[in-house]
Amino acid sequence: MLEEIVEPLIEWYRRDHRILPWRERRDPYEIWVSEIMLQQTRVEAVKPFFERFTRALPDIRALAQCGEEELLKLWEGLGYYNRVRNMQKAAKQVMENFGGELPADYEKLRSLPGIGNYTAGAIASIAYEIPVPAVDGNVLRVISRLTEDDSDIMKQSTKTRVEKELLAVMPEGRSGEFNQALMELGAMICVPNGTAKCGECPLAKFCLAREHGTVMELPVKKKAKERRLEDRTVLIILDGEHLAIRRRPARGLLAGMFEFPNYDGHLSREEVLELLKGYGLMPLQIRELENARHIFSHVEWKMCGYAVRIAALEENRKQDLIFVDVDSAQEKYPMPAAFAAYARYMNLRLGQEKYEKR
């Protein structure tokens, strides 16, 4: 069956594929950046990030030499910040070992930090026409439905088997088109959420799940581990026109990012006031803010918040706090979108919101 899908799939892709900025040129660097950004992020959401990132860092040398704060600021709003840190580690290795060019070799690509089978396959096939598969969630869903395979797609053994099956039918000289066509079909037709658009599918006549009415039962995906719930109290501390932020630790969740001061648990007004006084700050006014939540991959924050005005300080007695104006916070300091609900109180826009038209 998989041999039979190659031609109709590529024909459909050539006719109906989306025009995307990273498809304009088969540039290995741009393909790499886009694939890392697209992990767990929608295509439309990625476009402004991709354009801004590649404008600021147009090549591997620029990525390798970029300062940490600027790098995190460019990635702000995409989340999973270790991904861009790994990209920079990989860029430095490419400068040292491969003359500043991503190698046209699947195994050498896989050896770089943050590049696994899928990303290596995407770069190798699309940029260099190396006949290797690029199997992501979209591809696994398409193949599971086509073959009516009820294997758990979260298992590495399932993914490895699908990679071998696709490798056997990879069309010479058109591997990049074939891989992109499978991805595109999964993103646009054989969709992950909602009803599959079987009536528009170029592979409908080959699909066993469609024939047997099992499309919506596939793929089989084991239930993810439940997220850990954490209560947090977020403080918007204002010293005149300046806002208090601080830097997170160099390791762990949101490592190295800047944030509004926040603390374990849901604190009462009285507990917040005592906390600030313990830091040598003099609260003048406190106002309760709305509750908010933010979901990370393995943790969910349930947040409450307070806006607190304090007396102007001659010096900052709480050494980990930095008082900055809103414009500086917006432009200079990388802050995660986890705090977006509270940033709005200062007309501060974080993450994707920064690039949306009002």
Description of the molecule:
- The structure is a single chain.
- This protein is an alpha+beta fold.
- The chain is 42% helix and 15% strand.
- It has two domains: 2-217, Hypothetical protein, domain 2 (Endonuclease III, domain 1, Orthogonal Bundle); 228-355, Nucleoside Triphosphate Pyrophosphohydrolase (Alpha-Beta Complex).
- It is built from 15 helices and seven strands.
Estimate nothing, just give the exact number of structural domains: 2
Secondary-structure-derived class: alpha+beta
CATH superfamily of the largest domain: Hypothetical protein, domain 2
Q: What's the helix count?
A: 15
Per DSSP E runs of 2 or more residues, the count of β-strands stands at 7
Question: What portion of residues is helical?
Answer: 40-55%
H/E order of the elements?
HHHHHHHHHHHHEEEEHEEEHH
User: Mean pLDDT across all residues, rounded?
Assistant: 93
CATH fold-level label of the largest domain: Endonuclease III, domain 1
Which regions are unreliable across 5 or more consecutive residues at pLDDT < 50?
Answer: none
Shape: elongated
Q: What is the name of the CATH architecture of the largest domain?
A: Orthogonal Bundle
Integer-rounded radius of gyration: 24 Å
Question: Summarize this, please?
Answer:
By secondary structure, the protein is an alpha+beta fold.
